[in-house]
Design brief:
Radius of gyration of chain A: 13 Å
Shape of chain A: globular
Number of strands of chain B: 12
Shape of chain B: globular
Strand content of chain A: over 45%
Largest sheet of chain B: 6 strands, mixed
Structural class of chain B: mainly beta
Radius of gyration of chain B: 13 Å
Order of helices and strands of chain B: EEEEEEEEEEEE
Strand content of chain B: over 45%
Distance between the termini of chain A: 36 Å
Oligomer: heterodimer
Largest sheet of chain A: 7 strands, mixed
Number of helices of chain A: 0
Largest interface: A-B, 27 and 22 residues
């Protein structure tokens, strides 16, 4: 089965620093998503992205967050100035046609630790 | 409002025993319901989904789930677990075209 790839698997950063989490969605997919899971809590939707623009974002996704598809294969999540509460597992996902009746393919996640 | 509730944070069963993981949802319309599994170091993998029709749905790895509207439940079952089933299991529901996850149930398998 095709895979969504995320790098790095674990990122440690200092509070206030910028981080970029990278994802390579499945090549023919058109819809891209970021979710996060704070330890012990549920997986939460952050943002969806289609046709080079954000289609929806949650209240978590404030001005400190941005997403980009810089080169047609990568899909990145940037946190401009990290806070301690940004420590979480971040999952990238993609699907071909969008919507929740289409299977979402998830990556294995990037564990972000903000010190 | 909480859309998906998984009342059990941890479940421990013996290998070969049957399994049932509970999930309740709160949503006005008939929801789309999902079960995902997350094995250590792996991404979230879809086990099965319910959209409409037969309320008993079959998934991968021998799992099944039953949608019960009267109980607002979508419990996951497996007749005989294997050690490789040890993982975290997430129930999820669609809402406004986003997938909303429960907090997860961690399954431990005793040899």
């Amino acid at each position: 089965e095709p895979e969504v790839t995320q790098t790095p698997s674990h990122q440690v950063t200092q509070m206030g620093q910028e981080v970029i989490l990278r994802c390579v969605p499945i090549s023919n997919h058109l819809y891209f998503y970021w979710y996060r899971q704070i330890l012990g809590q549920k997986v939460e939707f952050l943002v969806s992205f289609y046709n080079n623009e954000i289609s929806e974002k949650s209240e978590i996704f404030d001005d400190q967050f941005s997403v980009e598809r810089p080169d047609g294969s990568n899909f990145t999540l940037k946190i401009r100035s990290t806070k301690l509460e940004d420590s979480a597992m971040y999952f990238c996902a993609s699907n071909l046609r969008g919507g929740t009746n289409e299977k979402l393919f998830f990556g294995s996640g990037t564990q972000l630790s903000v010190l | 409002a909480q859309s998906v509730t998984q009342p059990d944070i941890h479940i421990t069963v013996s290998e070969g025993a049957s399994l049932e993981l509970r999930c309740n949802y709160s949503y006005g319309a008939t929801p789309y319901l999902f079960w995902y599994v997350q094995s250590p170091g792996q991404g979230l993998q879809l086990l099965l989904k319910y959209f409409s029709g037969d309320t008993l749905v079959q998934g991968i790895k021998g799992f099944e789930a039953e949608f019960k509207r009267s109980q607002s439940s979508f419990n996951l079952r497996k007749p005989s677990v294997h050690w490789s089933d040890a993982a975290e299991y997430f129930c999820a529901v669609n809402r406004d075209d986003k997938i909303i996850f429960g907090k997860g149930t961690r399954l431990h398998i005793l040899p």
